[in-house]
Write a structure and sequence with these properties.
By secondary structure, this protein is an alpha/beta fold. The protein folds into two domains: about 250 residues, Acetylglutamate kinase-like (Carbamate kinase), CATH 3.40.1160.10; about 110 residues, Archaeosine Trna-guanine Transglycosylase, Chain: A, domain 4. Helix content is about 35%, strand content about 20%. It contains 13 helices and 14 strands. The strands form two sheets. The chain has a nine-stranded mixed beta sheet with strand order 3-4-2-1-5-7-8-6-14, sandwiched between helices. The longest helix is centred in the N-terminal third of the chain and has 25 residues. Bound molecules: adenosine-5'-diphosphate and ligand VHF. The site of adenosine-5'-diphosphate (ADP) has 25 residues, from helix 8.
Length: about 375
C-alpha cells in the first residue's frame, strides 16, 4: 500500500475504564496499533484526549468535573499522566513521541500556524510520533475547541493528511443515538455530511466524552472541506488501524474510500460497466458486504435474475429488493444457480478463478449514497 499520512484521534471514552480513569490496557491496545501502522511505513500523528479523564481522580473528584476551572486543573494533572503512559508504552516499540499542546489561537495567528507546521514536519522527518492535545489548562472557555474532534479535523487539513481516523466507543455513526434508541441504524458510508445529519446526531451519553456524534460530524464536514476522508468507529488489536486504512474498519467511512488506487476499477463498476443481471442476497451477506468489508460468498446468494457470464457486472439487491451495490461476478448465472446457498469449498470449482467468492470485495461498490446497516 502507498505510504500515507494518517491522523488518528482517540477520544476520552476509548481511553478510560468504567470508572472514568485512564485504562492502561486500552492505552496499550491503541499504542500497539499505532506502532504497527508506523512500522508499515505510514506517517502517524496522534490527537489524544484523556487529560481531564486521567487527572480528575487525583484531584479528589468522584467524576469528571463540570466547571471550567475543575476541568483545567484536572487536565494539568492528567496531561502529564497521559504522556507518561504513552511514553513508556511507545518506548517498548522503539518509538519516540513528542507532545504538542494547542489552543485555538495557534490556528488564528499566521506566524504560530507556520511555526507549528515546521515543528510537526521536523518531528515527522526525525521519525518522532507527535501526540497532540488541546492545551486545556490555559484555554479560555470561549475559545476552546471543546473536544478534540474539531482539533483533529483542523490538523488533518493543515498537514494535508490522507486520512483522519476518529476512534471512539461506538462502531460508527447511526441515524439516532443507539445508546438511547435500540432501533437506530448504522451508516457504513456517507459521501457527504448534510446539515440534516448533523441536526439528527446526538451529544455524548458517556460520562467522560464531550460532544458526541454531533461534534464528530462537524469535524468530518470540516475535514472533507480540506479534501481529507474520514473514518469514525472503533476496533481492537494491533491490526485495527491497518484494517481501517484498507477499508475493513468497524465504523462509518465518510467522503472517498481510503484506497484511491482502487477507484478507477470501482468507478468503472459503479458508473460505466453494462449491468448484465441481478442477484439477491440474504441479511448476513448484506451485513458482510456493507459493514464488514468482506466478499460475497455463495452461501449468501438467495436468487438470480437474468443471464450473465462470469466477469460481468451485476446489481446486488437485499431481501427487500433494494439495490445495495454492484460488483464484478466470478460465476455465470447458470453456475450460480447451481451453487447458491452452498458452502465455499463445494462451490469454488464452478468459479472462473476456482475461488469461492461470488463477488470479491475488491470488485464490489456499495451504491447507496448513505448505506445503512442494521
Ligand atoms: N447518531 C449517533 N450515532 C452514534 N453515536 C451517537 C449518536 N448520537 C450520539 N452518540 C453518542 O456519541 C458517543 C461518542 O461520543 P463521545 O462520548 O464524545 O466520545 P469520544 O470521547 O470518543 O469523543 C457515543 O457513545 C454515543 O452515545
Ligand atoms: N482535551 C480534553 C478533551 C476533551 C474531551 O473529552 O474530548 P473527547 O473525548 O474527544 O470528546 C482532554 O484531554 O481531556
Amino acid at each position: 500500500m502507498k505510504k500515507k499520512r494518517v491522523i488518528v484521534k482517540i477520544g476520552s471514552s476509548s481511553l478510560t475504564d468504567e470508572k472514568g480513569a485512564l485504562s492502561e490496557q486500552k492505552l496499550f491496545d491503541h499504542v500497539e496499533a499505532l506502532a504497527y501502522l508506523k512500522q508499515l511505513g505510514h506517517e502517524v500523528i496522534l490527537i489524544s484526549s484523556g487529560a481531564v479523564a486521567a487527572g480528575f481522580g487525583s484531584l479528589g473528584y468522584a467524576s469528571r468535573p463540570k466547571t471550567t476551572a475543575g476541568k483545567q486543573a484536572a487536565a494539568a494533572v492528567g496531561q502529564g499522566l497521559l504522556m507518561q503512559g504513552y511514553i513508556s508504552v511507545f518506548r517498548q516499540f522503539g518509538i519516540v513521541t513528542g507532545q504538542i499542546l494547542l489552543t485555538r489561537e495557534d490556528f488564528y495567528s499566521r506566524e504560530r500556524f507556520h511555526n507549528l507546521f515546521s515543528t510537526i514536519s521536523k518531528l515527522l522527518e526525525r521519525g518522532v510520533l507527535p501526540i497532540i492535545n488541546e492545551n486545556d489548562s490555559v484555554s479560555i472557555e470561549e475559545l476552546t475547541f471543546g473536544d478534540n474532534d474539531m482539533l483533529s479535523a483542523l490538523v488533518s487539513g493543515f498537514l494535508h493528511a490522507d486520512a483522519l481516523i476518529i476512534l471512539t466507543d461506538i462502531n460508527g455513526l447511526y441515524d439516532r443515538n443507539p445508546k438511547t434508541n435500540k432501533d437506530a441504524k448504522k451508516y457504513s458510508f456517507l459521501a457527504e455530511i448534510t446539515d440534516d445529519l448533523i441536526e439528527k446526531a446526538g451529544g455524548s451519553s458517556s460520562s467522560v466524552g464531550t460532544g458526541g456524534m454531533k461534534s464528530k460530524l462537524l469535524a468530518a464536514q470540516k475535514a472533507l472541506s480540506f479534501g481529507v476522508s474520514v473514518f469514525v468507529g472503533t476496533g481492537e488489536g494491533k491490526e485495527k488501524l491497518r484494517d481501517i486504512l484498507e477499508g475493513k474498519g468497524n465504523g462509518t467511512y465518510i467522503g472517498a474510500p481510503f484506497q484511491p488506487h482502487m477507484q478507477m476499477r470501482k468507478q468503472w463498476i459503479a458508473y460505466h460497466a453494462h449491468v448484465a443481471g441481478k442477484i439477491e442476497i440474504d441479511g448476513g451477506a448484506e451485513n458482510a458486504l456493507l459493514h464488514k468489508g468482506k466478499s460475497l460468498l455463495p452461501a449468501g446468494v438467495t436468487n438470480i435474475f437474468g443471464t450473465f457470464q462470469a466477469l460481468d457486472v451485476v446489481e446486488v439487491v437485499n431481501q427487500k429488493g433494494t439495490v445495495i451495490g454492484r460488483g464484478q461476478i466470478y460465476y455465470s448465472s447458470a453456475d450460480l444457480e447451481k451453487v447458491k446457498g452452498w458452502a465455499s469449498d463445494q462451490a469454488k470449482s464452478y468459479s472462473i478463478h476456482q475461488r469461492p467468492e461470488v463477488i470479491h470485495r475488491d470488485n464490489w461498490v456499495p451504491l447507496r449514497k448513505e448505506s445503512f446497516v442494521k
